[in-house]
Each structure stands twice: as structure tokens, then as C-alpha cells.
């Protein structure tokens, strides 16, 4: 029996060694055949640069390909890497500055690290790559989407300077880092279920919404230069750093989460409401007041109530039709609107309701209030408008 087993093993070995891989691109084949200990193309399974074509026949056999653990294809004028799936034990693959439009790496479960830098890349097939840990794609100006649904082991994803339009890594529970910058067409990012996600950078894109519900492990978030109108970080109680500068459409921000994060929210001229932890109120207010040239909205309301009456999204539809005068106010202010006023509520800077009246006239007497700054919330036509006033 032992002799039979040995004979079968030798037969399989000889068969594999005699089966040469067909590479449609002769340049790719030449790169592989030219690999050697002094060339940074290939490493063996022990991590040493080596010669793949061990028998010097100018071909790459299946057995020779199976001994490769690392491939680095760069600056070679390669237009196709067809045949690469025969390198079944490659765990790390780098492709730089070639003419490759399509890469098919499906069903390569040993592949753990894949980096691709190249401006003509159009399609990447990673289906069934259940062992992939890190994916980096850069400077790819024809790549619209990458299906990562079966790459369930992913820990790090990076897309830099691409034409990617959407990113979906939902329920990738192993994912710890998303690093996406300068993707001018990226309009959708789905990250729900990434419960171990710690680091997120999605900047220089055209995102208008992102749902971070349940992502309690986030410590570092950079969403600068997007088109968000509302951002909510109330689930991020481990947050250390938040960068949202340049979101010029942003109107409301919710960061009441128990974390005292370092925050950059400059160049947000339409930001009208920030709900934060009470210990942050004075710091945020001072930042706004002390930096008038940094693109802050000097009328931004900052408190810790997170009360829906302060929702700017509800207010914007009627804001331009409602005016308060005079402002500053001595005792009485008037409300100018074409609609019937249903109610008026006034909040102090701590978010406390200090005055409320239903079906009032358009003249409101606040002589009893102390001097200071207040937020007036006017409900008319079932819509709410908030206006900031100063009581002398």
C-alpha cells in the first residue's frame, strides 16, 4: 500500500510539473520567467525572493506556481494577468503601473493582501476570496464598483483617487479600517453591521448620508469635504477624533455620546444646530465665536437636548418666509409670516424651555425673560422654524 501511495504521489507531481500554464500576455509570462533572487517579483513560501522557473525551460508549470507565496508585478507593460489564478498559494499580490484593465482573482482563498495601483483598471473579481484581509486600490480612473460581499474576512479597505461610485461592506464584522479619499464620484457608503470598525475616512466624495448606527467601536472618523446635511454620532461613545470640515451643506450635528472627541467642524457655514454633551457646550461655542474667519455659522445653536423642535430639516421650508423684528429685543418682538401661528416656544442656550404659548398673536411679550440669547421656535402651517434672538 505504501508503494502504491508513493507511486501515485510521484505521478501527480510529475503530471503537475509537466503541465505548463498558458499566459495569453507574453509580457506577463516574461516577468514571471524572469523572476529570481535578485529581482523583487516573487517570494517563495518562506518569504525569500527566488526563481519561479526552477528548471530553466522558459515555462511556468503548475508545481512551480504552487511554490509562490508573493507576487509583485510592476512597471512591466503587462496588459493581462490571466493565468494568475494558478498561483494557488499566493497570499500577497501587488500590481503597479501596468496596462491591466481586468483582474480575475476569484476563488483564491489563500490570498490575504491585494494592492493595485493603475489608472486603466476597470474590473476586479474577488468573489469567493474568503481569506482576503487587506484590499488597496489606488489611482484607478475607470473603476466604478467592486463586489466585496464574499470577502468576509476583510480587516482593511482602501480606495484612493478612483471613480468608485459606491462602497458596500455591510455586515463585514472583521472590518476595522476604511480609508477612502479623493473618490470624486463616491455617492453611497454602506457600513451597517461592521461592529468592529475603528477607523473611517471617507473624504473628498459626494456622500449625502451615512448610517453609523450600532458602530460602537469607532474611535477615528474623517468625513470632510462631502455633502451631508445631518450627521449623527450618538452611538460612537469611544470617539476620539472627528473631522467634518468642508461639509458646506451640513445643517445639524448630533454628537451627544459621552465621548469628548477632538473635532474639526470649520467651513460649515450652514450648520445651525449642534447637540453635544453638556461638558462640550462652552468649548464648541467658544470655537465658533473665537474663529470668525474659519467658516463657522455664528448663529449656530449649541445645546445638549437633542430636541426635535430644533431640527433644521423641518425648519428650512418656511425659514425664508418667517421674520422676527426688532432683534435685539427689549420687551416685545413681532413675527412676520403669511401663515397662522400655531405656537411659539422659546429655549435658552442650555436648551431649556423658558416660554410657551399656543395660538398667539404675532406680537410676543418677553419682558419677563432675562437678558441673553434665546432660540424662538415658531410652528405655523404644521412646520417649524427656529430663529435666534437677543434679549436686551
Automatic annotation (TrEMBL):
Pfam families the record matches: Por_Secre_tail
Annotated signal peptide: 1-24
Domain of life: Bacteria
Keyword field contains DNA repair: no
Keywords: Leucine-rich repeat, Repeat, Signal
Domain Secretion system C-terminal sorting: 324-390
Entries under Gene3D superfamilies matching the protein: Ribonuclease Inhibitor
Protein name, per record: T9SS type A sorting domain-containing protein
Amino acid at each position: 500500500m505504501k508503494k502504491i501511495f508513493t507511486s501515485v504521489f510521484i505521478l501527480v507531481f510529475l503530471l503537475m510539473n509537466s503541465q505548463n500554464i498558458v499566459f495569453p500576455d507574453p509580457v506577463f509570462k516574461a516577468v514571471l520567467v524572469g523572476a529570481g533572487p535578485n529581482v523583487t517579483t516573487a517570494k517563495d513560501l518562506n518569504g525569500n525572493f527566488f526563481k519561479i522557473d526552477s528548471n530553466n525551460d522558459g515555462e511556468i508549470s503548475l508545481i512551480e506556481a504552487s511554490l509562490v507565496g508573493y507576487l509583485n508585478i510592476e512597471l512591466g507593460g503587462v496588459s493581462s494577468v490571466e493565468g494568475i489564478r494558478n498561483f494557488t498559494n499566493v497570499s500577497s499580490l501587488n500590481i503597479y503601473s501596468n496596462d491591466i484593465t481586468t483582474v480575475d482573482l476569484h476563488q483564491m482563498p489563500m490570498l490575504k493582501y491585494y494592492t493595485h495601483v493603475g489608472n486603466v483598471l476597470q474590473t476586479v473579481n474577488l468573489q469567493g476570496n474568503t481569506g482576503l484581509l487587506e484590499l488597496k486600490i489606488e489611482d484607478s480612473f475607470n473603476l466604478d464598483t467592486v463586489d466585496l460581499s464574499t470577502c468576509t474576512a476583510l480587516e482593511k479597505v482602501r480606495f484612493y483617487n478612483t471613480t468608485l461610485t459606491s462602497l458596500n461592506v455591510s455586515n463585514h464584522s472583521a472590518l476595522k479600517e476604511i480609508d477612502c479619499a479623493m473618490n470624486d464620484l463616491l455617492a453611497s457608503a454602506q457600513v451597517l453591521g461592521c461592529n468592529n470598525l475603528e477607523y473611517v475616512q471617507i473624504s473628498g466624495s459626494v456622500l449625502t448620508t451615512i448610517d453609523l448606527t450600532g458602530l460602537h467601536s469607532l474611535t477615528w472618523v474623517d468625513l470632510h469635504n462631502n455633502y451631508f446635511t445631518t450627521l449623527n454620532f450618538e452611538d460612537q461613545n469611544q470617539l476620539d477624533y472627528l473631522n467634518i470640515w468642508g461639509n458646506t451643506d451640513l445643517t445639524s450635528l448630533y454628537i451627544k455620546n459621552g465621548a469628548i472627541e477632538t473635532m474639526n467642524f470649520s467651513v460649515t457655514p450652514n450648520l445651525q444646530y449642534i447637540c453635544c454633551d453638556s461638558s462640550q457646550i462652552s468649548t464648541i461655542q467658544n470655537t465658533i465665536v473665537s474663529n470668525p474667519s474659519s467658516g463657522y455659522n455664528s448663529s449656530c445653536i449649541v445645546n445638549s437636548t437633542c430636541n426635535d423642535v430644533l431640527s433644521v430639516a423641518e425648519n428650512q421650508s418656511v425659514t425664508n418666509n418667517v421674520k422676527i423684528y426688532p432683534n435685539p429685543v427689549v420687551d416685545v418682538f413681532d413675527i412676520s409670516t403669511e401663515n397662522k401661528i400655531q405656537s411659539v416656544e422659546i429655549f435658552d442656550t442650555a436648551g431649556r424651555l423658558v416660554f410657551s404659548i399656543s395660538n398667539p398673536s404675532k406680537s410676543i411679550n418677553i419682558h419677563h425673560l432675562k437678558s441673553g440669547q434665546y432660540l424662538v421656535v415658531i410652528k405655523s402651517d404644521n412646520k417649524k422654524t427656529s430663529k435666534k434672538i437677543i434679549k436686551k
